[in-house]
Design a protein that fits this description.
The protein is an alpha+beta fold and about 100 residues long. It has helices at about 5-20, 40, and strands at about 50-55, 60-65, 70-75, 80, 90. The longest helix is centred in the N-terminal third of the chain and has 19 residues, at about 5-20.
């Protein structure tokens, strides 16, 4: 499998997971009056939380956390810096998160 096909499969899986996760509905908060607080942030009721999907490919990672009325998406992508002294790109440190 070529690198282009591998990247395309990864992007297709992330797009499919996001399409499924972004089917949201309004849900008024029982704790905050006249508000629809994002349940992904409150995380106080397990029955309102959805599934968590993690899609990874080498250094790339996508974490999708679902709830009834919100979605949290965490991405980790490698950063490539080109050094003026070398022809080869160097990989910089990536930000560490939940991926």
């Amino acid at each position: 499998m070529s690198a282009t096909q591998s990247v395309q499969q990864y992007v297709d899986k992330v797009a499919s997971a996001l399409n499924a996760a972004l089917c949201l509905q309004a849900y008024p908060s029982p704790k905050l009056e006249r508000c629809s607080a994002p349940q992904i942030e409150l995380n106080d009721r397990a029955d309102l939380m959805g599934r968590t999907s993690k899609i990874a490919r080498r250094d790339d990672c996508c974490l999708i956390e679902e709830s009834i009325n919100s979605v949290r998406v965490s991405l980790r992508l490698p950063t490539v810096r080109h050094s003026p002294l070398s022809r080869q790109p160097s990989t910089a440190n990536t930000v560490q998160n939940q991926c």
